[in-house]
Each structure stands twice: as structure tokens, then as C-alpha cells.
Amino acid sequence: MRRELWRRRAERGQMAVELAVVLPACIVVALVAFNLCRFVEACATFDRVAPDAMIALGVSPAGEQSALSAAGQVRSSIQSALDMSSCEVSVQVSGAPQEAAGPGMSFSVSPLLTTFTCTLRYRPWPGSFVMAGVVFSPPVALTHTRTLVVDRFRPGVVV
Q1: For strand 113-122 and strand 87-94, is the pairing parallel, antiparallel, or unpaired?
Q2: Segments making up each domain of the chain, as ranges
Q3: H-assigned helices in the chain
Q4: Residue 67 pLDDT > 80, yes or no?
Q5: Which of 43, 69, 92, 113 maximizes the CB count within 10 A of its CB?
Q6: Is the sign of the CA dihedral 56, 62, 66, 68 positive or negative?
Q7: Is there a contact between 72 and 62 (Cβ–Cβ < 8 Å)?
Q8: b/e 101-124 (16+ beta carbons within 10 angstroms → b)
Q9: Looking at per-residue confidence, does 44 or 101 come out higher?
Q10: Which pLDDT value is given to residue 49?
Q11: DSSP character at residue 109
Q12: What is the pTM of this model?
């Protein structure tokens, strides 16, 4: 009888110790899952909004008809649709007639086509996290890219 009572007392703190060992790992797994869900949500929104913005604003930008103006309008349109503070959007334009016509030495094969490359950068939350020896250090940024070729001078022409 006495021996059984002693064994129960010895096992009494076992659950608390197991919880203290497993809890940091569970928190890190939950943070990874949270960031993955946010990144997938941002990518889904980005994949839906980016082509529409490139077609609508890249082909016929409001105001000045330059590649830089179009890139700025596309970027601001995508950024406002994402509405996440952890996401950054960058837009690069290549093959535009202003860029292709150099000092008379290079010519573009297709001078009217413009390539828009939109890049989404997601910064995971938190930047780094250490709890009871378990380190959560996500990459600096996760990226996702969409590219579309349009003819800026003929509305509706998408390659």
C-alpha cells in the first residue's frame, strides 16, 4: 500500500514536465502554420489582382504615358488590394519602347511589347522567436512573382 502511494506521488508532476517540454515546439509549429496561411492568402489575392492591374493600368496608365508611370500605378493598385502591412509589392518594366531605343545601337525585336514583372514579398511575423531553447527564425522574406507581357499601345493585346 505504501509503495503504491509513493509511486503515485512520483508520477504527479509528469504531465507538467511533459507540457513544459512540448509547449515551445507547439508554439513554433503554430507560428509556422499562421505565417504559411497568411502567405497563401496574400499569394491568392496577388494572383487574382496582379494580372488585372497589369492589363488595366499597364496598357493605358492615367496621366503620363511612360513605363515608370505605369509601373507605379500597377504597384499602388496591387498594394491597396492586398491591405497587409507585412507585404511589399515591386513592379519592374522591361522591353518598353523608351528603354529599348538606346543610343542607336540596340533595337528591340518587338518594340511595342512591354513585360511587367510583379513581385510580392511577405515578411513573416515575428522576425525571430526563442522560447526555452527552441528557435523560430523564418527567412527574411518569402517571394512570389507574376509576369505578363502586354502591348501598351494596343489595348486588349496580351501575349
Answers
A1: antiparallel
A2: 2-151
A3: 2-11, 14-59, 67-82, 97-100
A4: no
A5: 113
A6: negative
A7: no
A8: eeeeeeeeeeeebbbbbbbbbbbb
A9: 44
A10: 93
A11: S
A12: 0.70
Please list, in sequence order, all residues whose beta carbon lies within 8 angstroms of the beta carbon of residue 127, skipping any fewer than 6 positions away: 138
The 10 Å Cβ neighbour count of residue 99 is 14
- Rounded CA-CA distance 13/21 in Å is 13
Contact in structure between 113 and 95 (CB atoms under 8 Å):
yes
Tens digits of residue pLDDT in 22-32? 888 888 789 88
CA proximity to 112, closest of 55, 73, 159: 159
Grid cell, residue 121, equals 514579398
**The residue to which cell 494572383 is assigned:** 47
Under 8 Å between Cβ of 146 and 90 = no
Q: How many CB atoms lie within 10 A of CB 133?
A: 8
Which SS3 state, helix, strand or coil, does residue 102 take?
A: coil
Compute the distance between CA of residue 51 and CA of residue 57 in angstroms, rounded to an integer: 10
What is residue 150's three-state secondary structure? strand
State yes or no: cis peptide before 126, omega within 30 of 0: yes
